From TrEMBL:
It comes from Orrella marina. It catalyses: 4 porphobilinogen + H2O = hydroxymethylbilane + 4 NH4(+). This is Porphobilinogen deaminase. Gene3D superfamilies: Periplasmic binding protein-like II, Porphobilinogen deaminase, C-terminal domain. The keyword Transferase applies.
Amino acid sequence: MVLSKVTDRPIVIATRASRLAVWQAEHVQDLLRKTYPGLEVSLLKLSTRGDEILDRSLQKVGGKGLFIKELENALADGRADLAVHSLKDVPVVMPEGFTLACILPRAEPRDAWVSGKYASIEDLPAGAVVGTSSLRREAQIRRRRPDVVVKPLRGNLDTRLGKLDDGQFDAIILAAIGLQRLRLESRIRMILPVDLCLPAAGQGTLGIEVSAGREDMVDLLMPLACQRSTAVSIAERAVSRVLGGSCSVPLAAHATLQSEGGELIAADAGLDSITDAGILVRALVASPDGADVLESSVFGPVSQANQLGEQAARILLDDGAAQLLQEHLQDD
């Protein structure tokens, strides 16, 4: 691709300083360099409050927005042009002054079961300790195994694995993609099927944020965007938006592109497949103990991804999701 005016100067990518976050930013850096040969792209590594506060759960200290605020400050004051995020950490309602400019191809969206002793959740003995700080994961694990103990697990990926290895937990649950990106696939005992643990909205996907009005950056990122990933992400984030989704809510949303016959459309399918595809949206809301679970699923044209996500959420609301979520917030 021919260099344009926007690529005549170095581009700065803001990122968290964790090993996984840096991998993700370097991935975008490589994509930009391949798309625009000769382009200078550097990283601005920042520590966020979400990385620094490890003794309390996210829902008690401000939610997932803690992971992106410092990066947005760098965008606002001109230190950075782009910020790379795990899409599941990006608020479904973007803060004023910022926009989600690009969604990259989705990788593995499911969760991973990690344990040195037990191959699956079914193998756990009663009273075994499972580590996760995700209310979504906790609710679904306790739904299947109410006889196990779920305890908070914070820290970066290496810290979490270290706590497992130290014997603090019998098993932990992590996003599979994080392990895969850092070449730690050998730690995965199994990928949890979505029927057991429905993923979070945006899990496995990278989003790139820019300051509002930076049309030059939007144009720069256009070749990196993925229509398939954008469609499913729009649907998933619509579920979360209608239900007030955040890390303080036990909420899951997962969308897939499918043919009319119900066959899953491969990630590398041609763009013509999207035009004719349907999108299946699954949503779940639960109490943290997994005792009360509401689920919905809707299918329709991919062109209506946002409406289908909203519809899946409203089905849950009609079934009592608002009361379930309110009861959880009061208990919390």
